[in-house]
Amino acid sequence: MAGSSPSPPGDGSPGPDRDPSGLTPAKLREVAVTALIGGGVTALFTVLVEGMRALGTGLTLLTSAVIGLAVAVLLTLGHFSRFLRRLLEPVKRIVARRRAPAAAGTGGPERPPSRRRQRLERAVLKLSAGYVGILFGAAVVMVPWGAVKGGVWLSHRIRPPDCERPLELRVVTAPENVPALRESVALFIRSRLVDGCAPYAISVGVAPSIGELAYALGDNWYRDDVRQEGGEPFRRLYGPRADAWIATSTGEADLVSDEMKAGGATLRIGPTVASDRLVIGMISGRAEDIRERLPLERPGSHSLRDLWTAIRSDSGMSVSYPQPELSTAGLAAVSDLLLLDDAADDAADDVVDREQRGIVAENVSSLLCQFKTATQGAGGENLARSLAVVVPFHSLTDYNNGRFNDPRCPEGASSGRNKLREFSSPGLSRLDYPFVTIDWPNERSGERAAGLGLLRGWLTAHPLFGDGAGAGGRPETGAAVRGLKDLRDAQNEFFDLLPRVDAEIALDVSGSMAAPPRSLLVRLREAFPDVKPVITPRDDLTLSSFSRIGGRTRVRQLQPSVSREEFDQLTKSVIGATGRGSDAPVSDMIMNLNGRAGSPGRALVVMTDGGVFDNERRGESIGGTLARAPHVTDLYVLALGDNGCDRSPPRRGKYRACVETGPDMQQALRHLISSMRGKARR
Amino acid sequence: MSVTRRPRELLRRLDPAQRRWGGAGLVAGLALASVLVSLAGKGAPPSVSSFTGCGGPNRLTVATGADITAGSFRRDLIEEWNRTHTTQVTLVEVADRTDEERAEMAGRARLGSCAYDVFSVDVAWMAEFARSGYIRPYPLDPGEANRYVDNVLEAGQVDGVQYAVPFVTDVPLLFHRRGVPVPTTTEQLWKYAAENGGYSVQLGDYEGGTVNLLEAILSAGGRVTDGERIVVDEKDSGERVRQALSRWHALLERGVLARGSENFSKEDTFSTFRNGFLERGSRNSVEESSLQAFRDDDVAYMRNWPFAFHRLATDRSMYDDRGRLRFGMAALPGAGILGGFNLAISAHSDNPAKARTLIDFLTGHDAQMKLFACSGYPPVLESVYDEYGKDPRTCGQLLAPTAGTGSTAGTGSTAGKGSAAPTDGPASVPAGEDTELTGPMLQDLAAKIHQALLRAESRPQYSYYAAFSEVFRSCARAVVTGDLLAKELDLSRFADALRDARQGRAPEETVRSLAHCGKPEGRQGQ
C-alpha cells in the first residue's frame, strides 16, 4: 500500500525527549501497549472460558472466529496495521535514539541510558514480539477451528441434531418415598438440560424389602430364585439394576450391608438426603378425642407411653403399621413400640397382635391406600374412627394431599374430618434417608460415578419432603435414628411374637390351571419365592396337589412339613407341579387329605382358579364335608385367575376367607399368610 | 506495495532477537491453541468404563422381559438349546414392564457393558438401539429374509439396514360377541357399537394408549408422521387429526367407547377383579380391563391383541350351552399398529457368531410353531401360517414324542382336540374338562393374525420414540378425554413439540402442563 511505509526514526516526530528517564507520553504509551497486549491475551482467554460457560461452546467459538478473522484481515490489509505501527512508533524511536549515541560513542547532551534500562527496553520489545507471535500462532489454529465449529453450531441452530443418548441411571427407594423422589429427580434432570437435551435419564423404582435387597445386592441384582439351584437357564432381575438406593435410615443400610454375602456389590453410605420421623396418624374427628385424653404438654412432646395409653387403652383403637418383615418403616415402628416402658411381655404381644388384626400391608403406601379404600366403603366411618396408623410424617401429608404411589388407590385429597392428623413423640424413630451408592463388581464407569455424584449433590442440596419441620406438633428433639442393633433386635423379637401358621396347602393342578397363554401355575411359581420373607422359623406348611384323572380324585403330597429354613423345598414342589386332568370336587380332596394332613386341627388353603367349586357330587357340600373333617380347622381360598372369588362357597362354618390374587399374585400370597396369622392369634 | 510483501517487510524490520521471540511466541501460540482446542473438543468429563467377568467363549446371555405365558415355553426352548449345544445360554428376565426392560438394556449398552449378548428389543425401540450403536447390523441373504412375514421383518430395519430379526409379533384384532354384526369399516363399527353396547379400547396414559390413538388418527385418514417428518401441522393432515380426535371424544361422551376407556392405565389392579369393570375406579386397567369388560358382557366389541383369544377361549364361561364359543374375531376395521419383539445382537457381545446361531434357532420353524401353539406368541414366519392353514396342530400334538398331524394325534389331557369345531362352531367343552385350544381354533386365529399383519402399520422410527410417544399421547389424549377442546389444539406448537421430542428434547414446560398442545394457561380440564 503506497505511503504506508514507516518513517525513519525521528522523522516527523515531536521533539526528542529531553529526559528519557522521566514519565513521558511515549513511555506511557509503551507501558500501556505492553499492558494492553498482556491484558488482552488474559482477557481473551477469560472471555473464551466464561463465554463457553455462559453461551455454550458453539456461540463462543463462532464469535472468536469472527473476531480472529477480522483481526487477521485488518492486520493484513493495512489500515489497522498502520494504526498499530503508529502506536508502536514512539517506542521504537526512543529505542533508536537511545541506541544511536551509544553506537556512535559520542557524548551528547543526552545521558546514555543505563545498561539496565537498555536491557529492560529490549526485553519489552522482545516480549511484545512474543505476544504478537502468540496471538498469530493461536489465530492459525483457532480461526479455522472456530470457523468450523461455529459453522457447525450455526447449522445446528438452524436444524438441531438428535440429543446425545442420556446416561441411564436407576435409583430405588421404599414405595412411600417414590413420589417425592420422582419429583426431585425430574427437577434435577431439568436443571441439567443442555439445549433442551437431558444428559441423564433417571428412573425411580421400588426397593425390595431388607432381606430381598441383601440377596439382590449380593447376587448381581438377581432375585433369590430357588429355581436356579436346579441349573435352569433363566434368572430374573429386580427390574433395571440399581445404581443408588435411598435407604429409609442409616440403620437399614447398615443392616442390608451386614446381611449381604461377600463378592456382591459394594455399598457406599453417603449423606442424608431427607429427614423425617414416624408419627401416629388418625382422622381429625378422632384426633380431637385423643388430644383431650393426653396430659397437658406441648404438642409433640408426649411420651410414646402416654400416646399409646390414650390411643389403645383409653380409646380402644387399633394401631396398624406396615409389615416389619417387608418395610423398614414398619420395623422402626415395631422397634419403638417394643421399647415401651412395660412392654416386656403382654404389651409387646399386644403390639404384634394388633398389627395383625388391623390392616395388613407390605409398605407404608399400601397401608394408607388400604386405609383410604376401607374408610370409603360400607362402615368406613366406624373403621376410620377405630384405627390409627404409624407412618412417616411425609406419607401422612401425601395421604392428605391425595398423592399415592399406587394407581389402585382412590383418587382425591382428604378433607375435613377425613384428613389424617398426626401425633408425634420423642419415642418415635427419626428417619434419616442416606444416599447409598451401589458399585457393582466387574463394572467401573467414570461417567456413571460422575452422574451419581451430581445427583447426590442435588438431593443433598434439595432434601426430599421439603422442610416439613415444626408441622403439627412434631417434636424438635429427642427422637433417635434406630441403628443396626435396634433394628436387628426388633426383627428377632417380632418374629418370636408373631402367631404361628400351621397349614396344609392344596394346589389345584387341573388342566385349566395351566392353560395358555398365562398359565396360573406358572404365575404361582413365579410368586412363591417372594413369600419367603413373611414365613417365620416357627411356621409349619405342607403342600399337596389335587385334580381329577380318569374319573377319580387324586391327591398327592408334594412336600411334607417345612418352615422358613426349608421353604425353598416347598417352592420347588410348586415349580414341579404340572397341570393335568380336570377339576376335582373339593369335598373329595378334603376327605382324601383326612388322616394324612399331619397334625390335627390345621388350616387348609385351597389354591384354585375356582372351577373346583362347581364340581361337588350330588348331596355333598363343602360346608358339610368341612364339618365332618376334624383335621381342618379353617378353610382359606386363594382365588387365581379371572373368576376371583365368585365361585367360592358362602363364608360360614369353617370357611374363613377368600383372597383374590388379581394381577399381583405375590401380594395376595403374602396377604393370605398374614390373614392366617391374624386368625391364629384369635 | 502488494499485500503479500507487507508481512515480509514487517518481519525484515524486526531485529533478530525480536524475530526469535516472535517465532517462539508463534510456536507457543500454536501449542496453546492446540491444547485448548483439544480440551474443548472433548466436552464431557473424561469417562473411564471397564467391564470384566463377561460370559466367556461358551456362554451367551439373553436379556428379555418376563415370560408368564403358559408353560413358559420360551424357557423350554432355551433348555432345549442347552441340551444340544456346547455354548450355554442364560435367559435373564429383566422386568414385567417394557419401559424398565428398555432402561436396563439401554443402560448397560450405553456404558459398553458386555452383560448381554442378545437383546429382545421391542419394535418401538429399534431406532434407538440401532442408531445409538447398541446392536450390530444383522445382514440377511434373500433366502433368509423371505422366511419372514414382510412387514414384520421390516420392523427390524433402521435406515435401510437390518439390525434384528423378529421373534414374536403382535397386531390388534377386533373381538365381537356372537350374534352381533361384524363391522368392516370404522363407520360401521361406531354404528354397531352404539346399537349393541359399546366398544372397548385402551386409552390409558401408557404406550398402549399411544397405539390406540395413532390407530384412531390413521383410520380417519390423518397422519402424524411421514417417515422422519412430523406432518401434524400440515394443512390436510392436521385437520384430519383434529377431526379424528374430536370424533373419539364425542364417542367417549356418548358411551360408544366403553366407560373407563379414557383412563385405562398400565397398572391393572386387584380392584378390577374385585369390583368388576363398571364399579372400578376410573383410573385402572389396560388390555386386561377391556378383556374383563368384554367377557362380562359389558361391551359387544373389543380391540385387543391376540393373547386375548387364548384367555377367552380357555375360560369355560365363554362357551354357550352347546359348547360353542360365545365370541368371534375379525380384522380391526381401519388401521392397526404392529407390535412385537425382535432379537438383536449386542454391539459389545464377545460371541456374535454364536449369538446369531442362537437367534436362528429361536426363529426356526419348529420353535415358532411351538411358541404359537403352547405359549400363544403370534408367529413371525410365513411357513408357520402356511402350515396352520393346512394342518393345524395343538401344543400337545407338537410336543408329543411322535408328533403327528391334527387329525391323527392328540389324546390325553394336554393333547388338545384337533378335530374340534372352529371358533364359531361347536366345541365340546363340558364343565370340568380342560379347555385347551383346539387345532381349528389355532387355525382360525393364525389366519386372522396373518390377515391383520399384512395391513398393519409400524410406529414411527425415532431414536427418542418414547419421548415422542409421551408428547403425542399427552395432547391427543387430552382432546379425547376433554381436557383440551379440539379447537384449542395448537397444531403448530404440537408439531414443534413432537419435533423436539423425537430428537430427545424436553418441552419448555412439563408435559403435564399441556402448554405444548396449546392449552390456555390456568384453565382446568372439562
TrEMBL record, chain B:
<feature type="region of interest" description="Disordered">
    <location>
        <begin position="399"/>
        <end position="434"/>
    </location>
</feature>
<feature type="region of interest" description="Disordered">
    <location>
        <begin position="502"/>
        <end position="526"/>
    </location>
</feature>
<feature type="transmembrane region" description="Helical">
    <location>
        <begin position="21"/>
        <end position="41"/>
    </location>
</feature>
<feature type="compositionally biased region" description="Basic and acidic residues">
    <location>
        <begin position="502"/>
        <end position="511"/>
    </location>
</feature>
<dbReference type="InterPro" id="IPR006059">
    <property type="entry name" value="SBP"/>
</dbReference>
<dbReference type="InterPro" id="IPR050490">
    <property type="entry name" value="Bact_solute-bd_prot1"/>
</dbReference>
<keyword id="KW-0472">Membrane</keyword>
<keyword id="KW-0812">Transmembrane</keyword>
<keyword id="KW-1133">Transmembrane helix</keyword>
<comment type="similarity">
    <text>Belongs to the bacterial solute-binding protein 1 family.</text>
</comment>
<keyword id="KW-0732">Signal</keyword>
<protein>
    <recommendedName>
        <fullName>ABC transporter substrate-binding protein</fullName>
    </recommendedName>
</protein>
<keyword id="KW-0813">Transport</keyword>
<dbReference type="Pfam" id="PF13416">
    <property type="entry name" value="SBP_bac_8"/>
</dbReference>
